[in-house]
Design brief:
five-stranded antiparallel sheet; flat
Length: about 290
């Protein structure tokens, strides 16, 4: 390896460390919020602010999720393309989103309306909500769901649903979905792939996880008084929404205990970040001659 290559690879390693550390911090922050916020009975909600509740979902007007066509109140989805450069290949996130319709959560003590809204991160152009760098897609690796700004999901059934080969048409439902989301980049052609073994350049896969009426859910969000609310407040005067500040709305079909355990994977991201940081510093020291090679 030439002397000039050492600092180049050192800088790349430090960039990888930064990405891993960033995603680890995001995961760690979610875990702290889940741990620090006590679960409140819905019937006991009497103030605005951050609340943590659990209960059963109900909705009079669910929608059909864009990838699987399932009846849902929440759909978390992600699109990845297989990208080959030279002799290497990797899955790269092209877009992710969370669709939701207003729904109600009932825990037996009361019920409250939840309005999450629709959120989209176009990783292929503008509107990128989270930094992605090469194969280190830590958001996908560390979570079962999507995280966009201050709205996050963790869905146990989040998995690759459909894979579309390059130069092929997607299923009709997905084609309609892509036509409606005009910011999502078109699928790449296959280039040659004559001697390909495994994935072909341009192959696209679609992930989705849904929350449906009747599901038991965990929800962390901002309780806000509705228009015309009377004081003192009750759950009937409250709507739970994403926070306006640097807070978090987190929805999951897992129990708090399961969610807490899954979010503990931030430790792995921190370890990866530390490893890349040490490697990057070592390469820079060697490349600049501070530490002699050999």
């Amino acid at each position: 390896m030439s002397n000039i290559a050492f600092p180049i690879f050192g800088i790349v390693s430090l960039l990888f460390a930064g990405v891993a550390g960033w995603f680890g911090w995001k995961q760690h922050r979610k875990r702290r919020l889940v741990s620090a916020t006590p679960t409140t009975e819905i019937g006991a909600i009497a103030d605005e602010g951050t609340v943590e509740i659990t209960g059963e979902v109900s909705c009079d007007d669910p929608f059909h999720s864009p990838i699987q066509g399932e009846e849902a109140v929440v759909s978390a989805w992600e699109i990845e393309d297989w990208d080959e450069t030279g002799q290497s290949g990797m899955w790269q996130t092209k877009a992710s989103g969370l669709y939701s319709t207003p729904f109600t959560i009932d825990d037996g003590t009361g019920q409250v309306q939840v309005t999450i809204g629709d959120h989209l991160a176009d990783e292929s152009g503008t509107g990128i909500s989270d930094m992605q760098l090469g194969p280190l897609d830590f958001d996908q690796f560390l979570t079962d769901g999507v995280s966009i700004g201050n709205v996050a999901s963790s869905i146990e059934r989040f998995a690759a649903v459909t894979t579309v080969p390059p130069d092929a048409d997607p299923p009709e439902r997905i084609a309609e979905f892509l036509e409606g989301e005009t910011t999502i980049a078109e699928q790449s052609d296959s280039i040659t792939n004559v001697l390909d073994v495994g994935h072909a350049h341009g192959e696209r896969r679609f992930y989705e996880g849904t929350i449906a009426p009747g599901d038991e859910v965990y929800l962390l969000g901002e309780a806000t008084a509705t228009d015309g609310a009377t004081h003192p407040l009750s759950s009937d005067d409250i709507e739970i929404q994403p926070p306006d500040d640097d807070g978090l709305l987190l929805v999951s079909d897992q129990s708090e205990e399961e969610l807490h355990a899954d979010l503990g994977t931030y430790k792995l991201a921190y370890a990866v970040a530390a490893g890349f940081a040490l490697l990057g510093i070592a390469l820079l020291l060697v490349g600049t001659g501070v530490v002699p090679l050999g």
